[in-house]
Amino acid sequence: MAELSDIRNQILQDEIEEYLERPEEITRFIELFSRAKPALQDIAAAIIEGDDDAADSLTAAALEHGIEAIEIMDDGLIGGMGIVGIKFRENFVFVPEVLSCARAMRAGMAHIEPILSAAGVEKHGTVIMGTVKGDLHDIGKNLCIMMLRGSGFDVIDLGVDVAEDTFIDAVEESGAKVLGMSALLTTTMPNMGRTIEAFIDADLRDDVQIMVGGAPVTQEFSDDMGADGYGPDALSCVAVAKELMAAGA
Amino acid sequence: MESQQNGRAIPTMTSRERVLAALRGQPVDRTPVCCPTSVATVELMDLVDAPFPDANRRAEPMARLAATAHTILGFDSVMPVFSIIQESSALGCKMQWEGKDNWPTVRMSEPIWESPDDIYVPNDLTSHPDTRCVLDAIKLLRQELGEEVAIIGKTMGPWSLAYHCFGVEKFLLLSLDDPAATKEILEKLKKVTIDFGKAQIEAGVDALTLPDHATGDLVSGEYYQRYLRDLHIEFAERIPCPLILHICGRTVDRMGFIAETGMAAFHYDSKNKPAESMDTVAGRIALVGNINNPETLFSKTADDVKAEVFANLDAGVQMIGPECAIPLQTSIANLRAIPEAVQEWHARH
Question: What is the pLDDT of residue A81?
């Protein structure tokens, strides 16, 4: 079993020691980073620190040294963002810090995505994402999309202020099995329920698994309006999407 | 009629007297029911023929719809500003006025400014049609309601205005990358808050809600202290009427700082427990809230609404109302349950 001291990068060691509390998460990240190549540990540390310049140059250097793009993404970029997601969930960091880390991840992904795309790596499936009608907030939705794409999903981003019919048309046209809706405002949350009702009225509810999220949204609200899944943050969005994709298969 | 508080007889108050006393920390005959944000609904729009977006842009329907908070719902205050976008429209933000069943909003993906140097706050901001209509509506409400009901206005804080004018994501990243530029933005935008607030006082409001969305769902309590506490102290000193700070979401981690601002009240969200919140502010600022909107007022029964009202009253919360602007499809019956519950609670205590 790997030890914390097996991780070469001091920033990663400190982050795990200071911010991770759940034993299974501590074990998972020690295992991940202790077996990760030193160059990828450095990339993960750059993501955690929100250093986009470092994430950019370290990712480019790792590719030049022949490390596989998928390995850089999994062990470096997503590994680092996983720690950020936990810190956000536990209120150690907030949205500005997460946005900064996401900017660093995008800098790294800019090198990785064209390679994965050209290689035709098999995806987990397609997820449709959008912020509901009347709501123009997209930070949470965009973070979810970044994590979903980084985790191997194709994502169709419908943007903000998405009407019920637009969600329905997108599902019909793409055949996507999972739909994610976001809302930041308590005043627009009811539009999630209306969209779900519109899918029922269109006789399409059984064709798609629907997940919801956003700062004011709760598990109780999600259950009450008949959603299939709920995630409190971008990290859990990926896990929920994987569950729903399996359920809808 | 009179009520007893701490053994002292308190004569029956008008709604306005009740709200103003609560804001001043003075005894009240019963806990006031307040709407520091908005209680506009589609049902109320239909009853007085004052639909959105008209009621957000013209003084007469704005005043008619605002008055329903008292005349139909039985609240002790009225609030003519239903949204948070009047000043942003006047500053030139791109708007989406929507229809009857949706809130107007700013197109924050199309920000109007990129740096502090771009900020321009016109001296005649309060002459713009979308701010002028608020001032005219306040005058109409005062004519119609006289001294009977508290009229609460609304002036947006610089943090919220910055979201609208710079875009939420860009502004939040700037707050991390360049604290000096962030402070410069807030310093320049405070003129909007003060000018519009003072204009509403001249028009006749009794108090002002000051939304400034530095919520725990977005930023840390340390952020509130670093960027906003001193500005909010300045507002309390320079805007000559009771101020009600409004911040949605989790805020208990910053309520200690908020309690230091000198504002009269803090309008708080149901994500914060009443008793814990009261303990945190420790009598330094009044609390108003915190009936849950999407799950309780919108989705549940009047009895569920009453249970939340009782929890707030049991904790000693000084003014009762929805946690934030309510979903437009919320039923009148559930909203009426708030003042009914307050009456029932006081009849038992």
Answer: 92
Rounded distance, CA A18 to CA A12, Å? 10
A240 CB contacts (<8 Å, ≥6 apart)? A211, A229, A230, A231
Q: Output the pTM of the full model.
A: 0.92
Element (H, E) at A131: strand A125-131
Q: Give the SS3 label for residue A151.
A: coil
CA-based nearest residue to B66, from B154, B170, B5: B154
Is it the case that residue B1 has pLDDT exceeding 60? no
What is the band of A235 on the pLDDT scale with cuts at 50, 70, 90? confident
Over 80: is that where the pLDDT of B216 sits? yes
Rounded distance between C-alpha atoms, residue B151 and residue B84, angstroms: 17
| Structural fold of domain A4-119 | 1.10.1240
Segment A223-235 shows an average pLDDT of 91
CATH number at residue B144: 3.20.20.210
| Residue of chain B whose Cα is closest to the Cα of A141 | B169
**Minimal Cβ distance to B293: which of A94, A134, A186:** A186
Q: How far apart are the first and last CA of chain B?
A: 16
What is the DSSP track for B296-328? IITTS-HHHHHHHHHHHHHHT-SEEEESSSPPT
Q: What is the mean pLDDT of residues B85-102?
A: 94
Chain B residues in contact with A189 (beta carbon < 8 A): 294, 327
- pLDDT top residue among A121 and A15: A15
Dump pLDDT digits (tens) for A63-102.
Answer: 999 999 999 999 999 999 999 989 998 999 999 999 999 9
- Mean pLDDT over A201-227 rounds to 94
**Residue A124 pLDDT greater than 90, yes or no:** no
In the predicted model, is pLDDT for residue A170 greater than 60? yes
Q: How many separate domains does chain B show? A: 1
Domain boundaries, chain A: 4-119, 125-248
Residue B311 belongs to domain spanning: 2-348
Taking the domain A125-248, which CATH number applies? 3.40.50.280
B200 Cβ contact list (under 8 Å, min separation 6): B134, B135, B138, B153, B154, B155, B208
Chain B residues with at least one Cβ partner in A under 8 Å: 96, 98, 102-103, 105-109, 168-169, 172-173, 175-177, 215-220, 223, 248-249, 253, 293-295, 298-299, 323-329
Q: Would the CB atoms of B294 and A190 count as touching at under 8 Å?
A: yes
Tell me how many residue pairs between chain A and chain B have CB atoms under 8 A apart: 90
